Amino acid sequence: MEVVVLTVLALGWSVFVYGAAAHSYRSAAVVLTAVAALVAIVRLPGPRRWPRVPWPAVAAAAVLLAYGWFMVVNAVAEHSLVYWKFTELEDRLAPWAPGSVARRTSLRAMLELSAVVLACLAAIRATQTGAWRRLLGLLAVLGALVALTGTVHKALGAETVWFIDDIQPKTIFAPFIYAGNAGQFMNLTLPVAFGLWLSGVFDPERRAANGFWALATVLIAVGVVVSSSKGAILVLAVSLVAQIAWNRHRVWEVIRGGIHERGRRIERLVLLVALAILAVVLMVVGIGMVMERWHAFLAGFEKVEGPKTLAGRLKMIEILLYMASPDEASWRGFGPGTFRHLIPYMTVDESRRIEGGWQHGHCDPLQTVVEWGYLGAAAWFTLGGGAVLAGILLCRRGRVASHDVPLVRGMVIGLTVVALHSAMDFPFSIYAIHLAAMLMCAICWGLWAGRRHGGVEKWRDRGAAPEP
Fold first, then answer.
1. CB 9 within 8 A of CB 36
2. Res 192: pLDDT
3. 296-303: Cβ within 8 A, 24+ apart
C-alpha cells in the first residue's frame, strides 16, 4: 500500500503542480520520486530486488550518470542568472577534460537524473509482476485528469492555473502553464488509455473497465483539442491513425461486438456518450479557435517573433546547430541544464540575433547535444530509441501476452509521437513529461529482459493466444 500511495503522490505532484516546471516545485518532485522509487525497489514483490536490465540500457544509463557527475565535479565555471556573470573555477580535477559551465544548475540536473534512474529501476522491477500495468493505468488516469482540469479551466475562463493570482502566460492549459506541454503529456498517455481499453476486448468480465478506459481515451483526445496547441493537435491526428491501424483487429472487434452482441449495451452506451461529449466540445470550443491559432502561427512564418512562431523556432534550430558544432559544444557539451545560461551569449552576434525570451531551445534533440555533447546525446538516444525498438520486438508473435500487446503498442506510439513533437518543442525539458516517458522506456526495457530470460509472469500457462 505504501508503494501505491508514494507513487500516486510523486506522479500527482509532478503533474498537478504546474508540471513541476518551476525550480522549487521541481525539487520537491525529485525528492518524492526518489523516495517512492526506493520504497518500490524494496517493497515490490518479485524474485530479484535488482532485476535484469538489457546491457544497452545499462551502458547508456552508466554513461549518463558517470559523464554527467564528472562534468559537475570538473566544472569549468559557475554562472549567476541574477548578475549574468561567469566565475571561472580554479583547481579543477582535470583542466583538459569536459566540465559544466554552470555548476549549480548541472548539479540540480544530475540529482534529478539520479532520482529518475531510481524510478526506472523501480519500473523495471514492476515488470516482474503485473504492477507495471497498474503504473500505466495511473499515467492514463493522470492524462484524463489533465484533460478534465484544463477543459474546466477553459470553460470557466481561468487566466491562471488553479485560479491563483500569479503572472502566467495566456497559453495555459491547467495544470500546465504552457498548453503545448499539456498537449504533449496527454498525447503521451492517450495511446496507453487506448491500449488499456483494447486489452480487455476479448474478456467479458472486463466490460465495465473497458467502458471506463473508452471514456478516458475520448476525454484525453478532447483535452488535446481544447488545449488549442497546434503541434499537439497535429500529433494527435498522427497518433490516432497509428493506433487504429496497428490495432485494427481489436478495433474491428469493438465495432462488430458493439453492433451485434446484446450483452455489450453498456459499452455501446459509454462509447456513444463519449463520442457525444467529443462532438459537443468540438462545437463549443469551436474549430474556428483552432484554425485561428493555426492562421496566426503560419502568418508569422516570415517574421522572427520569438518562441511562438515557426520562423522563430527554425531560427533557434540554426543557433542550436551552431552551439553543437565542433567549435562550440562538440563532443564535450556545456553541461546538463546549461542552455538557458548560454543562449544570451550565443545570440550577441548579429547573424544569430533572435527576439524573445528563450529558456528552452524548442528542439529537445539538439538541446541535448548542446548540453551533453555527442557522447551523452548518444546515450540518451540509446535509452529512448532502444526502448521503442524493444517494444516493437515485444509485439512480435509470441513475445508478449495477447492482452498486453495493445499496451506495449500504446507505449511505443506514445513515446514516438512525443519524440517527434520534441523536434519543434521542449516536452522532455518538463519534469512530469520526462518522468512519465522514462517510466515507459523502463517498462519496455524491463519487459524485453523478462521475456528473454523467462519472467515471473508465466502468461503462456494461462493459455494466452498470440496477437493475430
1. yes
2. 97
3. 297/230
